[in-house]
Amino acid sequence: MNDESTQRYQTRMQKKKAVVDARIAQANESRGVLILLKGAGKGKSSSAFGTLARTLGHGYQAAVVQFIKGRRETGEYLFFRDHPALEWHIMGHGFTWETQDQAQDKAAAEAAWAVTERLLQDERYRLLILDEMSYMLKYGHLSVERVVQALQQRPKTQNVMITGRTMAQPLQAIADTISDVGDERHAFRGGVKAQAGIEY
Amino acid sequence: MNDESTQRYQTRMQKKKAVVDARIAQANESRGVLILLKGAGKGKSSSAFGTLARTLGHGYQAAVVQFIKGRRETGEYLFFRDHPALEWHIMGHGFTWETQDQAQDKAAAEAAWAVTERLLQDERYRLLILDEMSYMLKYGHLSVERVVQALQQRPKTQNVMITGRTMAQPLQAIADTISDVGDERHAFRGGVKAQAGIEY
């Protein structure tokens, strides 16, 4: 590296620092947020579980409600289930395309929502993960007004993450953070089988 | 629900099941994959750490190399650091816009890559997470050819996840899965301060 490129690098980074510092100074409100992880790409539920580790790592309590029960024992469940600051509810009774029974699916959604409403009223939980909850709205198993109301009335310090491919507009309207995970490529379409530790 | 809507629901789900089953039947190769998590949206590193929990939950060994050391003690580090099947390396010495020193940044990248090369030759590690590694290529601290070669020569069962906003084209060319996490909204821009358990 010559002196000129070193100087350029330093100038570039000084500018970047000024921008970053200004942004940090502007964001000064402390409160729980609603985060939506949508889109067809890989990484939505795993992002929620990474955030769960992050929250537990700081000594907070958390809870997970899984609205679709796919496989019996996922790696994340095996890993987290014995953590003392965590409640984990596997609700639902299978992928909807496996069960093909609307009444049963709706009853399962109601049961999962009853658990969720209790958690949404308890400020001891710093983070709630509502995994695959968006499908309950897509298929009309839950009323979006009821869901929005319960989310809006939750404790001020509580963070909520909801995952699922599509997100109802009223949910998006009240969200603080929305990440849209695009599926640019997936190993599955390249012929690679779903594997323990990566897909489940 | 009347009989007609019940019937429609069942038909819809039967069609979905047929599509899902056909796709599953086609994907029958078993091997480690390279997953890239790029884009400006929230959820890339957290997705990698969720996958880490998933991999550890199935009893596999894993390793993390963090190429940019931001905060000293993140929630994920506090949470995972004592796990017996995990190696965690916090390399780098700060955000580049804080250090503003190119020679020091390059030396830190080299040291992190030396650790990574060792891990990429060791089949005991089922999953490697190279967190924020893409910046090393963006700023020219590492050679992309060297990175690509080491990734291609890794053990067949090893999964690798790389996170970062931008991804060099040669990395994208050899990836099995690419998720592009779009930043549709972020609480930070809404004035909410970064908080323990969510951002770090």
From TrEMBL, chains A, B:
Q: Which GO terms describe its molecular function?
A: ATP binding; corrinoid adenosyltransferase activity
Its UniProt entry gives the catalysed reaction(s) as:
2 cob(II)yrinate a,c diamide + reduced [electron-transfer flavoprotein] + 2 ATP = 2 adenosylcob(III)yrinate a,c-diamide + 2 triphosphate + oxidized [electron-transfer flavoprotein] + 3 H(+); 2 cob(II)alamin + reduced [electron-transfer flavoprotein] + 2 ATP = 2 adenosylcob(III)alamin + 2 triphosphate + oxidized [electron-transfer flavoprotein] + 3 H(+)
Q: Which pathway is it part of?
A: Cofactor biosynthesis; adenosylcobalamin biosynthesis; adenosylcobalamin from cob(II)yrinate a,c-diamide: step 2/7
Its primary localisation, in coarse terms, equals: cytoplasm
What EC number(s) are associated with this protein in UniProt? Answer: 2.5.1.17
Q: Which PANTHER family match?
A: CORRINOID ADENOSYLTRANSFERASE (PTHR46638)
Annotated family = Belongs to the Cob(I)alamin adenosyltransferase family.
Q: What protein does this entry describe?
A: Corrinoid adenosyltransferase
Organism equals Terasakiispira papahanaumokuakeensis
